[in-house]
Amino acid sequence: MLKSFAKCLFLVATCVALVSCGKTTEEEIKDAVLSANIHLSKKECQPAIDLLEGMGRQVKNAYYLKALSSAYACRAGYSTITFFADDISKTGSPSPLGGMTTTGALADNTAFKDLQTAIDILLYAGGIASSTEPTAAERQKYFSTGQAGDINAQLAYMMLVQTGKLVKVYANATAGGVKGGGTSGN
After folding, report:
1. Among 44, 74, 76, 147, which lies 20 to 30 A Cα-Cα from 120?
2. Splitting the chain (186 residues) into consecutive groups of 10 residues, what average pLDDT does each group show?
3. What values do phi and psi take at 134, rounded to 5?
């Protein structure tokens, strides 16, 4: 009798230990975001994307969305540091947004799509339906003021760079950013 009680107690203790030692989904997501940010600090874009996408899209988690967006932007060659250090001063010269055509390298189609994916992740943050206009006010419904502000700022920087890439291609800009002065047709 004592032997079977000891076996039963051991079995119960083992089950409790196995169940109580697991991380919650929230803890796993938090760890994934931290690991992804470490990858991004080393410019390891694809491992960060793989890690975060492996968690499934967490459309209501601002930290996850900012990290995932940053990972796609990283793979596109986008850098907020470069944007502020080199590119933002170009927005007013030679004409409004004309200088933006010189921001970073004109990316290939894959990089353009990656930056657009990064933008879309933040644009529709919170699970905003694609049939709804993704405004800042709409995002504010799903996140705190600080989280929504961070998302909106990150989004604005990436959209300016993406706009510069579009203007470069479709406004036939010169290497100096003068629209309509390039060698291609508008």
Report:
1. 44
2. 57 55 89 98 97 96 98 92 74 56 58 93 96 94 96 93 74 61 60
3. -85, 75
Q: Which amino acid is at 96?
A: P
What is the per-residue pLDDT for 11? 60
Prediction pTM value: 0.76
Q: Which residue's entry shows tokens 């002065």? A: 181
Q: What is the DSSP string of 54-120?
A: TT---TT-HHHHHHHHHHHHHHTT--HHHIIIIIGGGTTSSSTTGGGGGSS----HHHHHHHHHHHH
What is the token pair recorded at 93? 């010269």
Residue 55 CB neighbours (<10 A):
17
Q: CB atoms < 10 A from the CB of 62, how many?
A: 20
Rounded Cα distance between 107 and 151, Å, is 24
- φ/ψ of residue 53, rounded to 5: -65, -30
Q: Which amino acid is at 135?
A: T
Q: Tell me if 149 sits within 8 A of 122, measured CB to CB.
A: no
Cα separation, 118 vs 71, in Å, equals: 8
Specify the pLDDT at position 105.
45
Angle at 97 (CA atoms; ends 83, 138), nearest 5 degrees: 75
